[in-house]
Amino acid sequence: MKRFLTILLTTLTLAGLLCVTASASSFDGPAAELAAAGLLKGGAGGFALDKAPTRTQAAIMLVRLFGAEEEAKAAYAAGELKCPFTDVDETDAPWAAWLADKGLVSGTSATTFGGDNPCTGKAYTISLLRALGYKDNEDFTSANAQEFAMSIGLLDTSAFSGTFLRDDLVSLTYQALGADLKGGGTYLLDHLIKSGAIDAYAAKPITDKIEAYRTLQHAGTAASQGLDASVEAEIGLNLSVKGSDGGTTLDMTQKADAVLKGSIQMVLDKDFQMAMDMTTTVTDGETTESERVEYWLKDGVVYVRTGADAYRMPMDMGIDMEALTALMEQSTGRTYTAMLPFIDTISIKSSDEHTVYTLTLNDAFAGIINSLLGQAMGALSVEGLDMDMALSLDGSTITYTVGRDGVLKSAALNMSMNASLNAADGQDSLTASITVTADMDMDIKAMGKAVKISFPDFSNFEEIIGAADGPTGIRAFSIA
User: Fold this and answer.
1) What pLDDT is attached to residue 372?
2) For strand 301-306 and strand 429-447, is the pairing parallel, antiparallel, or unpaired?
């Protein structure tokens, strides 16, 4: 039964790591805002965000995003549109007829639409790309539609759960409203308001959020090419474990505090370069330990120095850096909206010297983290051992300070996470809880091409990877 404590602590640690994953699973707030703007309709039971959207529901949303709902109704009523699908009733026929007439959807056959069939994330993503003005087989293909959508800042949140729900439809729709139309000039919601398809007053909560977020993104545009910043973070951890393990009664509490101070520099040119110098001080109330670690990435090689130890190792980044650089240059000035549905509110305070934007995050983060934890715990499952876990994020905020010149000067993150886990195997049981608080501040010294990294002499760094009988490198991440 000693496995109990090991699995428990491993799972709780995993929860802490997953807290940096930005995703979502419950967008009640955005759904209410879409409904107020006339884009989403619910029923007696609410918006049914936990249900899969049907093809008919997705089609109706698409017509609204084209600003053509009234046009479709009028044209169908006047007999100017005919619905080619025999399985669509009169209520839904205007939308299906309009989309078919414009060549924006196809049925399950020449005469059937399959409106009750579930809509997939890929199909809805393609619909949104069309609403933004992008063309099939010109800007994207069916095979690369979701990858292309990511390149313009649209994230299908169902990728984290594996099932496309109305929740994810809401998230993608909300993102699309703030996304630039093809060719730029404006964003989708602004276009719909100016065309008269959406009432400006009804959509004001969404518009205000989009406008503030676009200003913020513009303030930090140069960071996509380079960043030089100082970082300071305070992290607190409280752990409590009670129960029994192998017949031994457990009643343990542990508290630890950590302070991280240092700097980070990143340059994205033909080769990604990085320099990080961080000192971590940890105290548990009885002892205090500090360690400084310096880290560099240059020409595909990682260099690390801590104390008297200095070593190097090749890194297989798995990235086409020329393609990535081209993408970053192409994205300069473009608004990426994947974060929008995660934001509950954006408050703005201005002074003569700067403007402070405070973003309050909603519960969507906790929802997707719980989903991911469920998957992770499934992977950690042991026969005969039952576990369940819940996680919540409380009062998470991100604060950005923008100078009078419109350039981002600093950022701060404040977050509190609570997690609980229960485990039992018929003989013993454990209950654990963990609370993590984090406050991080980042002061930006330079961005863009002004960022320069000075590397030390690496000649005395020991080669620890690359020997004939050892690994040839480490892979950081890959871009498909």
Assistant:
1) 61
2) unpaired
Confidence bin at 53 (pLDDT 50/70/90): very high
d(CA 202, CA 35): 9
- Mean local confidence (pLDDT), 41-61: 87
H-type alpha helices, 93-247: 93-101, 121-131, 145-151, 166-177, 188-194, 204-219
Question: HEC string of 253-276?
Answer: EEEEEEEEEEEEEEEECCCEEEEE
DSSP for 8-28, written as a single string: HHHHHHHHHHHTT----S--H
Q: Are 147 and 480 in contact (CB under 8 A)?
A: yes
Environment class of 210 (CB within 10 Å of its CB; exposed 0-12, middle 13-18, buried 19+): buried
- 3 state DSSP class of 438: strand
Give me the amino acid identity at 473: G
CA 34 to chain CA centroid, Å, is: 20
Calpha distance 157→172 (Å, rounded): 8
**Residue 478, Cβ density class (10 Å: 0-12 exposed, 13-18 middle, ≥19 buried):** exposed
Angle, vertex CA 220, rays to CA 215 and CA 225, nearest 5? 145
Token pair recorded at residue 122: 């890929």
3-state secondary structure 182-217: CCCCCEHHHHHHHCCCCCCCCCHHHHHHHHHHHHHH
Listed as own residue / partner, the contacts of 293-297 with beta carbons closer than 8 Å and 24 or more positions apart are 296/453, 296/455, 296/456, 296/458, 297/272, 297/273
Q: Pairing state of beta strands 309-316 and 462-463? A: parallel
CA distance 27 to 9: 30
